[in-house]
Write a structure and sequence with these properties.
Structural class: alpha+beta
Largest sheet: 5 strands, mixed
Strand order of the largest sheet: 4-11-10-7-8
CATH superfamily of one domain: Immunoglobulins
Strand content: 15-25%
Number of helices: 5
Distance between the termini: 225 Å
Shape: rod-shaped
Oligomer: single chain
CATH class of one domain: Mainly Beta
């Protein structure tokens, strides 16, 4: 027809050339006419993220970007999230257009409290962009103090030890690394102000309290995080007074219950043996108090032994050997032993004792001073009697008898 109309579009922005030519029914064509079309880019858009968003420390927060653009650009759009408005990570001089995270959806958390300015920017393939921002209020999470113990705090005795722990206190992972633990017990006055309450008796996650005194005591744990928020909890412990210790209790504390049992059994055995030996000794025969003199017990008189002399009938001039009789008093006068020469040592003055004075030669051989006190008089009496008792007269007729016999022999030879 005399006129022609068509719709056309281009996916990319910029200058595009348009060419037009007309043909008739004889296939004749007209001159070619050209034109230039400038296609402008349509910038993308992003929906607002909303108003200020509160969140606790270490809790995750998720945002989703809603963007629009032309159909040809929608698949190539890039969305960037700037999580720190105080830093310029891409170095372009702007602090709110960094690409800390990318994608239509973003999830983040913050370990410390404060206000965070979050910016989302969408950019198409022509560099056109749109952005939106939101404030995130990061709220500190206060700690929750908890006390745990490994021993029964209701069965403590005076002098016992107890370990208390605050490690089960809850807080955010980041804050728990910097928690400050302070302990106060009303049996201590660390600041010496006369008041046992409100002191800092110990600092640390675990507290070993040793040598507990008797009584009921309140122990308080205060936990403080990096934002100065605190949490306090308390427990009561009851410490019983230690009973008065006897011998068995002392031994039991030193060696334990089993050791005490063993020592008790051994003690009973020792006492039983001692009693048995004592009874056995008392029932035995008593020693003769004169046994230390070693006196002869024979009832035969010392003068009953005959005195023999050789006679002429024993042979021609041959004499029978004279028998040697034992000295009946040898038991009262033991053979003196050679004295050992020793350096005289000054002796303390003898105490007043009973018994006769010692002889010049000292104690008899083998005697003790106690024996001398009891039996010294008998000993001296026997010594005196042995010295003055007359000895029997022994007449030696051997020579005379032998001479007479010899004369008779010579007379016979004369015949």
């Amino acid at each position: 027809g005399p006129s022609s109309q068509t719709a056309i579009s281009w996916p990319n922005a910029g200058l595009h050339t348009l060419t037009v030519v007309a043909y008739d029914n004889d296939n004749e064509k007209s001159e070619i006419r050209t034109g230039v079309v400038n296609i402008s880019n349509l910038a993308p858009s992003i929906e607002p993220l909303g108003s200020t968003q509160p969140i606790f420390e270490d809790n995750n927060l998720t945002f989703t970007a809603q963007v629009t653009d032309t159909a040809s650009d929608i698949d190539t759009l890039e969305v960037c999230w700037d999580l720190d408005s105080l830093a310029d990570s891409n170095g372009d001089g702007l602090t709110d257009n960094d690409c800390d995270l990318s994608g239509l959806e973003m999830t983040a958390s913050w370990p410390t409290s404060g206000i965070r300015w979050i910016t989302a920017t969408v950019t198409d393939d022509d560099g056109a962009s749109d952005s939106t921002s939101i404030n995130v209020s990061v709220i500190n999470s206060a700690p929750r103090a908890k006390i745990t113990n490994s021993t029964d705090v209701m069965s403590l005795k005076e002098g016992d030890n107890v370990t208390l722990s605050g490690l089960t206190t809850t807080d955010t992972a980041f804050d728990k690394l910097t928690l400050l633990y302070t302990w106060d017990s009303d049996h201590l006055d660390s600041d010496l102000d006369g008041n046992n309450f409100g002191d800092v008796d110990y600092t640390g996650a675990e507290w070993l309290i040793d040598d507990l005194p008797a009584g009921t005591w309140t122990i308080t744990l205060t936990v403080t995080d990096d934002d100065g928020e605190m949490s306090t909890t308390s427990i009561d412990i009851k410490v019983k007074a230690k009973p008065a210790e006897g011998i068995l209790e002392s031994v039991s504390d030193a060696v334990g219950g089993i050791g005490t049992l063993v020592i008790g059994v051994l003690g009973v055995v020792v006492v039983g043996l001692a009693a048995f030996l004592l009874l056995t000794r008392n029932s035995g025969s008593k020693p003769d108090k004169y046994s230390d003199f070693d006196l002869p017990t024979s009832t035969v008189s010392q003068f009953s032994d005959p005195i023999t002399t050789p006679t002429a009938d024993s042979g021609f001039g041959l004499y029978q050997a004279e028998s040697i009789q034992p000295d009946p008093y040898a038991a009262y006068n033991p053979t003196p032993q050679p004295e050992q020469t020793s350096i005289p040592v000054a002796q303390p003055a003898p105490s007043q004792t009973l018994g006769p004075p010692l002889p010049a030669t000292g104690l008899p051989e083998g005697w003790t001073m106690e024996q001398w006190q009891y039996y010294g008089e008998q000993y001296l009496a026997t010594q005196t009697s042995s010295q003055v008792q007359p000895q029997p007269t022994i007449t030696d007729t051997t020579t005379q008898s032998a001479t007479s016999s010899q004369d008779n022999v010579w007379d016979d030879l004369d015949l």
